[in-house]
Every structure is written in C-alpha cells, then in structure tokens.
Design goal:
Blueprint: H1 3-27, H2 31-48, H3 57-73, H4 82-103, H5 114-134, H6 138-144, H7 153-171, H8 178-191, H9 194-207, E1 211-213, E2 218-220, H10 226-247, H11 252-263, H12 269-281
Antiparallel strand pairs: 1-2
Helix pairs in contact: 1-2, 1-3, 2-4, 3-4, 7-8, 8-12, 10-11
Length: 282
C-alpha cells in the first residue's frame, strides 16, 4: 500500500474525529450513533476516493487519533474506559465487513442492485432520525451555538476535583472568591479545552495579536500560561468582589452571583452560576 494512500487515510480519520467531536459536544451522541456516523462517513468517502481497497483502516486510525487525544491532550487513560474500547472493536470489525462485502465488491454502486437501495435508504433514514432526535435546525444552531454545553453534576464535580488538585496552591488563599474561580475554570475548560488553548498560543506566536489566552480566557497582548491567566482573573474578580461588598449588604451567595454576572457578562454567566452552586453544595 502506497504511503500517500496511508497518509490520506490518516487525514480522513482526523476529519472524522473532528466531526464526531463536534457532534458529541453539541448533541451528545450515543456509542451506536458514533459507530453509525463513522460507517456512513467511510461509505461516502469511498464514493469519491478511488484508493478505497483498505478504507476500513480509517476506523483504526480514528481510534489511534482518539487515543493520542485522550492521552496527551486530556491527560487521561484511554484504556480505562472499556465501553470505548468495545465500541472501537465493533467499529473496526464493522468497517472491515463493509469494506470487504460492500465497497470493494462494488455491489453498493450497481444501478439495479436491491442491496444498494437498502444501504442508501438506511443511510438516509439514519440521518433523518438523527436530525429529528437532536432537533437540529439552522435557526436553533444560530441561537444555541455559544451556550449548548452540558454541565451535569457528575461532570462538574469531577472537573472541579481535577482543578482543585491542579490549582489549589494558586486559589485557596482567597477563600472569598475561590469557588467562583473554580466554577469559571470548569466552564472555560469545557468551552475552550486545552487543545484549543494550545492552538490559541500557536496563533499568537504567529501574529502577536491580542486575544483571549489561558484557561481563564484573559484578553492579553502577551503570551500567558493557564496559571498566569488564573492569577490575573483572580485579581480582577477580587476587585469586583471588594467593590460590590462595600456597596451592598447582600448575603455572600447573592454577592457572589452579582460578581459572576458582572465579571462574566460576555459569557453565559447563568451556566457559571449553576456550576458555582454545584461546587458549593459539594
């Protein structure tokens, strides 16, 4: 097999990975949908790409890309999630069978083939049901694109625990606003995860243009780390807290809500308040 063909399979797997990440981030796709979408992608690619003899390798490379992402970007153990491992085993076997018995035999593309009709009807039906079940529309995408992020209690507590372990020494000194900081870290790390922040840093090195940087998304005209962004954010939030406290006799919880609303007014501060509440309960 030609090296160029292998490289093209790797590129296809990376494209598929980005598509799946986007869909999962926005619509929380199931493992079945993950496998089905991957198989549909492979079938569609095989239509336009003549070097499709081993196109099932896209699914194998997809698993490798996901492994690298989870291990080096999310800094987690890929192999601890047995459901994901089983899902990839099913995907690789399924894509091999599709490759062997549908794509390479050209049965799918025969004009008068009943099997061709069945396969494409299934693809169309699956896409229709997926769009219907996820309530996908152009209008809903425009309205919810910036705020459709899942923050269930389990996710918040797990993310909070990780942030506390990692940044405790930076944050714990300021107990008045510590939970606000942790809530913002959970929020920003979800909407702007580590790999995207690394992209931001790379873009900054190229053009030196002021942009939000670090985990706290601080507007900066110089390159800053996550820790530095936390220190800057803490300083600004503490100023707002002190100012509002001197002018108000509100309870601490109400005071902190007002701090969040003022500092995070450009973002979805209602979600940050929800995260803050879960952290306070914990």
């Amino acid at each position: 097999m030609d090296l160029i063909v292998i490289c093209s399979y790797i590129l296809f797997s990376m494209l598929l990975f980005l598509i799946l990440k986007f869909l999962n981030k926005r619509y929380s796709i199931t493992l079945f949908e993950y496998v089905s979408i991957s198989l549909i992608f492979i079938v569609i690619i095989s239509l336009f790409y003549k070097f499709n003899k081993y196109i099932f390798l896209v699914s194998l490379f997809l698993m490798i890309v996901d492994l690298i992402f989870i291990t080096y970007v999310k800094e987690d153990n890929f192999f601890k999630n047995t459901k994901i491992i089983k899902m990839y085993i099913v995907l690789i076997i399924s894509s091999f069978l599709v490759n062997k018995y549908l794509i390479n035999t050209n049965i799918v593309y025969l004009d008068n083939s009943t099997l061709r009709i069945i396969v494409w009807l299934f693809i169309i039906y699956f896409i229709y049901q997926f769009i219907k079940s996820k309530n996908i529309s152009y209008k809903s995408y425009k309205v919810n694109a910036s705020s459709n992020y899942d923050f269930d209690r389990e996710y918040v507590i797990l993310a909070y625990t990780k942030m506390k372990i990692k940044y405790k020494d930076l944050i714990e000194e300021n107990t008045n606003i510590s939970n606000i900081i942790y809530a913002s870290l959970v929020y920003f790390n979800n909407i702007r995860p580590l790999y995207l922040r690394k992209v931001d840093n790379f873009k900054f090195k190229l053009d030196n243009r002021k942009r939000p940087l670090g985990i706290m998304q601080i507007e900066s005209s110089k390159l800053i780390s996550d820790s530095e962004s936390i220190l800057i954010g803490m300083k600004e939030i503490d100023k707002i807290y002190t100012k509002l406290k001197s002018k108000s006799k509100a309870k601490k919880s109400e005071l902190n809500y007002n701090v969040i609303k003022q500092y995070f007014k450009k973002y979805d501060y209602d979600k940050i308040i929800e995260i803050y509440d879960e952290i306070c309960k914990f």
